[in-house]
Automatic annotation (TrEMBL):
InterPro entries: Clc_prot-like (IPR010761)
Keyword Membrane: yes
PANTHER family linked to this entry: CLAUDIN-LIKE IN CAENORHABDITIS, PUTATIVE-RELATED
Protein name per Swiss-Prot or TrEMBL: Clc-like protein
Species annotation: Parelaphostrongylus tenuis (Meningeal worm)
């Protein structure tokens, strides 16, 4: 075996490892960008769970005590039609709202006699604030540059010059994420 063949085999092994790690990092970045579960909160008294993300907020309600009967929720989530012993583990669906579409419903403020300050403070938590915009754009730049690095890593198997360009893009993705 000549020296050039060993070097070529080592380079392809290193490139394959680089490509695999970059692909895993890209996949995790996309999941982090899409996922609403950056912060998970379970409110025990209200029996609700909240998933807070950069651009999406979701809520799952387990409560039967907000003025509606248990039968209402059972028919809503089709629990009355389920016959399996595992049906108690059925989760109600997440109800999601985009942060840039968030508004305070005046009905909640006045008709249901809620504390206006509490609802205003809760709404502030769900707004599309500046730091969330900065984090979202940083994650977006990281995903785009890591996708470009993946594309160049495929070409790097044929041309060595793409190795350097792919490494630079991964460095950019790492500093913005």
């Amino acid at each position: 075996m000549a020296y050039g063949e060993v070097s070529k085999c080592g380079r392809k092994t290193a490139l394959s490892t680089f490509f695999a790690v970059t692909f895993v990092a890209f996949t995790l970045s996309v999941i982090a960008l899409i996922s609403p579960s950056w912060q998970y909160v379970y409110l025990e008294n209200g029996r609700t769970e909240h998933h807070h993300g950069l651009w999406l907020d979701c809520k799952r309600d387990y409560s039967f005590d907000y003025g509606r009967t248990r039968e209402y929720y059972e028919t809503l989530y089709r629990r009355d039609l389920q016959g399996s012993p595992f049906d108690i583990f059925f989760l109600p669906p997440l109800q999601c709202v985009y942060k840039f579409d968030y508004y305070i419903d005046p009905e909640d403020l006045y008709d249901h006699d809620h504390d206006e300050n509490r609802i205003q403070n809760d709404a502030y938590q769900h707004l599309f604030l500046g730091w969330k915009i900065a984090a979202l754009s940083g994650c977006g730049v990281a995903v785009v540059s890591s996708a470009s690095a993946l594309l160049l890593a495929v070409y790097a198997f044929c041309h060595r010059t793409f190795i350097c360009a792919s490494t630079v893009l991964i460095t950019i993705a790492g500093t913005t994420d």
